[in-house]
Amino acid sequence: EAEVAQSPRYKITEKSQAVAFWCDPISGHATLYWYRQILGQGPELLVQFQDESVVDDSQLPKDRFSAERLKGVDSTLKIQPAELGDSAMYLCASSLEGLEAFFGQGTRLTVV
Amino acid sequence: GQQLNQSPQSMFIQEGEDVSMNCTSSSIFNTWLWYKQDPGEGPVLLIALYKAGELTSNGRLTAQFGITRKDSFLNISASIPSDVGIYFCAGPNTGNQFYFGTGTSLTVIP
Asked: Do residues A32 and A92 make contact, with C-beta atoms less than 8 angstroms apart?
């Protein structure tokens, strides 16, 4: 069964360092989402891509976060510099026509 | 963003009992999704609903799309220990951005 692949599964980084997460969506899914989930809360949308274009990044803290999907397939989310408050689960999801979103296993980030 | 409120916030039930939870929105959705999330994992899609009034089952799970299009319900029959987790409702807005509810944490006591 097709899956959304994310790496790494876990990342520990020191504050002020740079960190990057990678996502490979389900083949053929044009829409890709990055979500952040703080423990005990539901996922919150950071950025949405349609193919290689950003559709919505209104909730992305652009002073330190960046996201790209250069060829409209896989995507990278970067944080530079990381802050303690960035500790969370970062989830990637993809969708074929916006009807259902399928999630990867996530990257658990701990900033120390 | 959209407000999706789920209730109850948490549930503690005996194995074999039935479970009901619901989700309400401040605005209309054309699709309702229900996910289950295990600790440390990403959400897994359980059921998708596409039409007001629709009732859909997936094994022991049954979900309904409320006729007002502002709510949805999830029922689990004859709960088992592996049902433990957090259940989220979600729905896409017109821009295909998925908003998630506050979650219902389920604990099943053997």
From this structure: yes
